[in-house]
Amino acid sequence: MDDYFAELGELFERFNVVGAFWTNIQLTFWAALIALALGTVLALMRISPIASLRFAGTAYVNVIRNTPLTVIIIFMVLVVWTLFAVTLAPGFNDNFFRLAVIGLAIYHAAFVCEAIRSGVNTVPVGQAEAARAIGLPFLAAARLVILPQAFRGSIAPLGNTLIALLKNSTVAAAGSVSWETASTMRLMIEFRPDHLYLIFFIFALGYVVLVIPIGVVTTWLSDRLAVKR
Amino acid sequence: MDHEAITDEPVASSAPRPTSGTATTDRATGEPLVELEGVNKHFGALHVLKDINLTVRKGEVLVVIGPSGSGKSTLCRAINRLETIDTGTIAIDGQKLPEEGRALARLRADVGMVFQSFNLFAHKTVLDNVTLGPRKARGTPKKAAADQARALLDRVGVANQANKMPAQLSGGQQQRVAIARALAMQPKVMLFDEPTSALDPEMVNEVLDAMVALAREGMTMIVVTHEMGFARKAADRVVFMADGQIVEEAPPEEFFTAPKSDRARDFLSKILPH
Under DSSP, is residue A224 helix (H, G, I), strand (E, B) or coil? Predict the structure, then answer.
């Protein structure tokens, strides 16, 4: 048993497992923030009274949601960075990190949009009518009446999107973020194939530890913040 | 249309409206405030509003009555463009209803609306429900909006509920808050779309009392309702709708005691004798 822990300690010493998880948490954090903002704008477009905005929002969701995330991440590196020479940070690693964040955000914004829209559907139509009837223009009605209630109704699907985002952040490996978990795991298996099961277990457990609280917190929040009608 | 007859309050009327003497509350000669001309609306193949012509004067209280599906709710909702219309014009205070955007929002701010299902903002306190419109649509300072809201809540008898959430209130209380919320915008006209239909019977009167008080203060009101008592007590004129058309209009006593059309007689015979 002591041997086992010694081996485990050696693995953690030789490979930056904690740093790899920290990278995915950071990727997830920034991508989630941007995706939430972008997804909210998209949801607003999709419920707006202006037909062209509705069309643009729908088109975005349908195109992006149906594109594999790997394609988007590779697109960020090979097209946005290589071809169009868009650099987001001076350092190589920082640049790849930010490109990956943007790619993850673009992709998950489509799901955030749909999660919020499902929340909008939990808001009775009379709420919007009452907001319009007291003279609030669309954006004010959305900001003050519809979205505050819609967000509360979309906490659970937003939580699911966040969980998917956390796990999908490993796709950043395709965008040269080579120090994140999936890449680190592959590297570890390559150098220590004798610990194959242990290595798998470390990463599986790591994600379980990260994901379970998200589920618990979002379920708790969605009960607690539910709008009483 | 004979508006002159309206001022002759029937002797039988239990509560004659006080005549305040100012021109704006004189129902016979008030300026036209809400004007509908040749209004048509279809829901798919269903022709819900058929060539509606209707003028409501300043200070007038109009009750719209009729069987379900007669188009009376649609008519009420069309007046602040919660329903669009196919043809015809609707004007409020001489201004045609704008299609969309800020101009429409401004006009809606002048038209108070009370819904059948109250539609209080479920995530906001009673006080915030009443202050939201003045603060965000009119730019009233927070303090002034809150003072006005408390006064209005007091007026409809729910001042002690100001800090509760709508779901904690009874239906009757919620509807009175909804009336206060609409009044907070100092509207030119108030629309009531079956305000008591979703209420338990014992709560109907508290809402009707608030509405009668409002009518006595000279508010211009368009009320879609089945409450005959309210119509008799507060209305200047009753409009009877059936199948999307205005079939008959008359002062309340005249309409309820001697309806002219078969359709109205038939309707009244079904709802009166209980």
Answer: helix
Contact B74, B245 (CB under 8 A): no
| φ and ψ at residue A197, rounded to 5 degrees | -65, -45
Is ipTM > 0.90 here? no
Q: Specify burial of residue B32 (Cβ count, 10 A radius: 0-12, 13-18, 19+).
A: middle
Q: Please state the domain extents for chain A.
A: 2-225
Chain centroid to Cα A61, Å, comes to 15
Q: How far is CA B14 from CA B10, B59, B236, B254, in A?
A: 9, 20, 14, 15
Name B91's bridge partners.
B35, B96
Q: What is d(CA B133, CA B109) in angstroms, rounded to the nearest whole number?
A: 8
Q: Strands of B111-114's sheet, edge to edge?
A: B111-114, B189-193, B220-224, B61-65, B237-242, B245-250
Q: Do B121 and A124 touch (CB under 8 A)?
A: no
Residues ≥6 apart with Cβ < 8 Å to B219: B59, B61, B189, B190
- Interchain contact, B122 vs A127, CB within 8 Å: yes
Looking at 1.10.530.10, 1.10.3720.10, 3.30.365.10, 3.40.640.10, the CATH number of the domain A2-225 comes to 1.10.3720.10
pLDDT tens digits for range B147-190:
999 999 999 999 999 999 999 999 999 999 999 999 999 999 99
Q: Which residue in chain A has the smallest CA separation from B107?
A: A135
| Residues B32, B216: Cα–Cα separation, whole Å | 19
pTM assigned to the model: 0.85
Contacts of A127 in chain B (CB under 8 A): 119, 121-122
Find out whether B120 and A130 touch, Cβ atoms under 8 Å: yes
- pLDDT tens for residues B219-258? 999 999 988 889 998 999 999 999 999 999 999 999 999 9
d(CA B23, CA B53): 24
